[in-house]
Amino acid sequence: MPFVETHTGANLHYEDVGAGPVVILVHGMFGTARTHFDATIHHLSQHYRVIGPSLRGYGLSTPKPRDFPPDFYQRDAEDVLALMDALAIESAHVVGYSDGGEAALIAAGLQPERFRTLTTIGAVGYFGPQMRPAVQRMYPVDWVSDEARALHDIDNPTPMVMQWIRSMKMMIDLGGAQSLPFAENITCPVLMLLGEQDTLNPAAYAQVFLDRVRDGRLQLFPGGHAVHDHHPDVFMRTLEAFLE
Prior knowledge:
Blueprint: E1 3-5, E2 11-17, E3 22-26, H1 33-44, E4 49-53, H2 72-86, E5 92-97, H3 99-110, E6 115-121, H4 132-136, H5 146-151, H6 158-173, H7 180-183, E7 190-195, H8 203-210, E8 216-221, H9 227-230, H10 232-243
Parallel strand pairs: 3-4, 3-5, 5-6, 6-7, 7-8
Antiparallel strand pairs: 1-2, 2-4
Helix pairs in contact: 2-3
């Protein structure tokens, strides 16, 4: 199992499968590359080198416990870029899901020359007031499975989720521009994938972000948040066409 020590202070476990152009998969909350992208890894690794880190505090990565300070998206973005440094990856296609998509948007704005394409799933880049009730509905924390607790070494997920909720509400109340300042820096094509019934991520908010990038488009799918799980065949065809 490969690990890499980054200059940002994270020791990241990562998947490294296949050969060819590099695709980096950035998972979401309470996930790892394998739990959120297993089928994607299988398909893409036939033509690409797929790198799937577990973000700090998740899975086997450290430091633990996972926490959510107000700048956690930028911290995760800097960890992804540090992973690329440590593995000598000059540029890559990047796919980010949920929280991982938000971090990927920031990373692409911080170092745009390193991104060949950027695909996000269930991420919008702008946190408007409509998101606040959906964020609050993450409590009570009865949705975290026993498997997730074991995977991430969590005895009680409630304090962790409450910290995420507090930080998200803080970002929303401060104007929701967590990623927007970086949007105009992004030079690669951007594809945002959203479920039409994703209650946390309104399509109108994704468009606010896309209006600030040079080459971006939004594609909607029936259903909710995890469109790559709900519509795997259409998702893979869409992603592979975009990467090519």
